[in-house]
Amino acid sequence: MVEGETEQAQGEEVRAERRSEYGSDWQRWTDDRGPFYRSCAVPPVDDRTETPAEGERPAVQFTTGITRAVLRNLPVALLAVLAVYVPTTIVQYGRSGRLAVSVPSIGVSTAIVAVPGLLVGGLWLYLLYRLFGSRFRGSTVHRSVVFFATAIPLAAGTVHAAYVAWTNAGTGADPAATVQAGYFLFVLVAGHLVYDGLALRTENLLANLGSTTIVDRETYEAFYDDLTETLGDTISFGPVELPESVTFAVVVALVPILLPMLITPWSWVGTLSYAAYSLVTLFVVAVLYDVFMLVYAFTELLRSDALSYQPFHPDEHGGFRDLGRFATRVNAILLVAGGYVAYRFYAEGILNLPDGGLGGPLVAVTWVVLYLGPVAAYVFLVLFWLYHSFWRLHRRMEEGRRERMEELQRAARAQAGEDADGHTELETDVPAWESLQSAPTWPIKRQSLFGIIVVDAVPVIATFVL
Hints:
By secondary structure, this protein is mainly α. The protein has helices at about 1-20, 65-70, 75-95, 110-135, 140-165, 180-210, 215-230, 245-265, 270-305, 320-350, 360-415, 425-435, 445-455, 460-465; strands at about 235, 240-245. Keywords: Membrane, Transmembrane, Transmembrane helix.
């Protein structure tokens, strides 16, 4: 029995080494592959829930419940929101005279023509789905089509809003009608990066990390068991269970969101437009909570004694390459957020400056909090993440390399013996020392890390220099 368990353990180690040598655990645990913009599902062509590539889904889930459902089906969910937000915003701008658009009145004759037209259009879409839906199953081309069909118009609206702000700076003009396109574009891109990287890939990484040679199995298993209870946890309200992320979003953001509607009377068109925008904001706050919990768990892993540096690991980064990829993905999400923060500063902040400048203290504080505050928060988060991810991994790798050098030198002394003065023979220590000098001490290539630092500075430069 013991012999069989030993062979099984050896087999797991062999499989782990092969996976580390020829592949990576930084991959999706689902049965699909491709770039990040092909990660989210497009129902009804795709299934609403994930299908594991093999075996069972990981025990640890980055997010659960309605937050995960919306994140997985983000393209369709965002299109549904835009289907409400865009027409109501156009009508609202048209009524206020800020947009030259004629809004036809809906009478009985219009309804008689519109209802059959909607039925015929719906039937046409259904026939297209029945014709091409089965061919798309098993492929992810349709995900690319939906992503870029949504992203390109949003990008065009973002560029238009930035151009309007650039050409009307200091004139007291209102932001462009397409100013919120940048926000929806940020949600679309960042949402795909989060679902692909922090959900599917990180869940797979955490599930398989315990079978690698860079962790102490007993310590890591205890850490992983704790993760199953903390990440994606739910809170019960009687018979109803809600994810902690949703509860957090409702408690933190619902009152500030409802406050403008309670203070100022709005038309039904403005209410619909604001409600659609607010639903997206609640979703963003919920996802931010889950991201924070995952990042905190990652920092706890680096503080623990679970990780073990392997200087000659096949991944050429001491076994920490996948952890470096996780850190890079979080940094990419921060960069997208920084790009939106810089865009918002120009597209809204510059144009929303009062004509007389920031004269009153209340006006100055409000403007600084709304537009400069997010930039300062971005700088803080980037510095925090660079230190608590790349730098701490670097320190852990350097410490592991030093410990290995000391271990090999002690072994060399024991084998060769010491002279009467207690000095070790030089030729015994030198080979062990030189063999570890070239061992890697960064989880990613240094050129890549330098590029990350440079790119992280772009939103700040765009805000204060351009």
